[in-house]
Amino acid sequence: MSKNPYRQDKEDIRELLKQFENLRSGKSHSFIDEDSFERIIDHYEEKEDLPAAIIAAELAIEQYPYSSALMIRKADLLITTRKYNDALDMLDKVESFGSHDINLYILKTDIFLALDQQQKAVELLEEAIKHIDGEERLELLFELSDVYDDYEEFDKVFDCLKMILEQEPTNEEALYKICFWTDFTGRNEESIKLHKKIIEDYPYSELAWFNLAAAYQGLKLYEKSIDAYQYAIVIDEKFDYAYRNMGDAYIRLRKYKDAIEMLEKVLELSRPEDVIYEAIGHCYDRLKNFAQARFYYRKASHLNAEDSKLYYKIACTYINEGQWESAIKQLQSALEIHRLQAEYNLALGECLVQLGKYKEAVEAYSNVIRQRPKNVQAWTSLLECFMVANMLDDAEEYVDIAYHQTKNKPLFLFYRSAILFAMGKSKEAINQLEIAMEKAPKLIKKFIALNPQILQNQQVVDLIAKYKRNKSI
Predict the structure, then answer these.
(1) Of the ranges 37-41, 400-404, 417-421, which one carries the lowest mean pLDDT score?
(2) Considering the entire predicted model, what is its pTM?
(3) Cα(402)–Cα(400) distance, rounded to whole angstroms?
(4) Among 237, 270, 303, where does a domain finish?
């Protein structure tokens, strides 16, 4: 029966360390070969005893003064201990031997970046790439792309990844990364051209099809993107991100049933995510299936209970069904998280008006106005609340405030006229309506919507006809 290899390895390293300690203390002149020195250095690195590792490297270099590998190991240790200039001197010495070891360039790059000499790092890598081929060239291109990323030269990151794929079209790391950088830099046309070429030579590359689809999606060519995603999932039927992106493309095309099918496939293939449940809820919302929309919004909120927007969306489904009390409960949950969110307060105000709770509605609208005094919707909602509640004195007072706060928007002149009509001040109301029509005649539709019965007033009809003849409306 053979010996345990792990035990044998431990015995070997123990013997090597003994020889090293004898050499270090000057007790003997034991011969240690180059590979054994590397094992000793590895041992001390694993133990995080960097001073001992450096001493081992120094003794090794004394015995093997022309070993590029040992010098590079020592330089790496010096970088770890932040002795950048010493490390750079060591690497310059290696380079003087004519070495083209890829680690030489990677370590020098690390030093230049640590010394905030980005341009030197770039120049070094660009020069090295000219003289190195094969896998090592790809490794240096990845290194260069990381340097550009760190210093926010994002188009050059894309260029590096493109060069990698031109050399090795099936490189998975580059295919994954270039998808992100295409979207980030907006270089969709170049990505389409690149991936079409890859697909010509490698038609079963699901990542190339996916990237092609994503580039089409970036250009809002959703039909083309869906076609490309379809190829990706034919090649890999468990490609969950392809289904996810297809779902988004179908949503953009307003094909909500197709989108639901794709998004449910995502749930089958991967962990449940609140964004997927929310997207399915959105689709049902658009299909006016509010019960199903609520079901998925609730699933999303169970996974992300701090997302106030989900409670708001649930509330909106109830509002669409006229279930005001249920909507209010959801809006209160949303407001507990974001008390001053304008959308939530406006929706709450609408529900309270429907229930005849006008004072509470006024408070909700006022919350918005205090935060956003120029918010037109908040002012119009408040004024309409006053009118419905027959609080016409308040309406008359606040319409003037709204007009001034919104920098004299003509819309509020129409509201002022409607309020004056409601107060029985017909002469003032007509005068006000004429002023409003002079400024913005197209807003007459909003005025009529406030009180459709106003069209029974002949003076109003004549005034509207006058502006129609002038083709102002």
Answers:
(1) 37-41
(2) 0.81
(3) 5
(4) 270
